[in-house]
Amino acid sequence: MKRIIFSSLLIAAVSFTFTSCLKDKGFDNYEYGINDPDTQAPGVGFSFGANAKNDYGLDVKSTPQVVNGLTNVNMLTGVVPSNDVNVTLTNNTTTMLAAYNSANGTAILALPTALYTVPATLVVPAGSRFNDAPITVSNTTTLDPNKQYAVGLTISAVDGGYNIAGNMKNLFIIFGVKNQYDGTYTLNGMFHHPVGANPPANFTGTVQMHTSGPNSVKMYVPLFGGYYSLMIYGGGLNAFGSQEPNFTVNQVTNKVTVQNVAAGATTFYDMGLGFNNAGYDSRWDPSTKTMYACWGYNLGAGGTFGGNGSAARLWLDTLIRTGPR
Known about the structure:
Blueprint: E1 6-9, H1 25-28, E2 43-46, E3 51-58, E4 65-67, E5 72-76, E6 85-91, H2 93-104, E7 109-110, E8 116-117, E9 121-124, E10 130-132, E11 135-137, E12 149-158, E13 163-164, E14 170-177, E15 183-193, E16 197-213, E17 216-220, E18 229-233, E19 236-240, E20 245-249, E21 256-260, E22 270-271, E23 283-285, E24 290-297, E25 313-323
Parallel strand pairs: 2-13, 3-14, 7-12
Antiparallel strand pairs: 1-3, 2-5, 4-11, 5-10, 6-9, 6-12, 8-11, 12-14, 15-16, 15-25, 16-17, 17-20, 18-19, 20-21, 22-24, 23-24, 24-25
């Protein structure tokens, strides 16, 4: 899964107490991007510390993932250190998360401490300006993909006579859990309901696919604000109640299967059929990020469509991923 850090500038969302703020005309004029050695004492801060939040996408997996670069510590000095600089980090998630949620009206959760580790200290080597303290997340399979999780770190001490930049001492990270199939899709579909749409009716809509497991996603319809399957019924685009199609991709073959995971649902989907009972290759195409799936329920004897009359339903979906959600 491609990891992308999205950084929001610290405008008004949340502020922390800033002391000994390292700032000067050289910094403002973009002459070197660090504090002016002629007017300020040298200091240290998180490279992304001035951002209100830093978002990071984690894969759904039971094996460790290492987040590098995000916790980068920057020596704010015109001259590189001639000796190693020891920086102490403190986990300040509770305080920073409460401030962020209060300021933004959000309900982000703390990433459970049992699931991650981050070094308490890091060393910026002599002759260098940067180093980072990688965050290792051990297991994400227990996290809810519909929620966000935060980690807050603070630079609490540094040796060598360096100042801690008050406006760069805090780093607030928000983690989301998404697999490679998660995102926004254009759905070109065909639905066959013997009573309401006969012959089969075509439709187009926008849906989201939400991570529901390491290699599965559940269809969410923004137009109707819930997990549904789309269809044409009664002459217009509609959502099918009590149907929450969950698409699972075989990681070896890229074959797709679909199951109804609505609470209390007893519907099982029959796979592999196309319209007119022809075979259909339900699959994921990684080159075009397109999912093809044919699925239905209450099919007739031998898997034939229409054998159960008005009880039968059949969908033929082509889902084209257009970007993240």
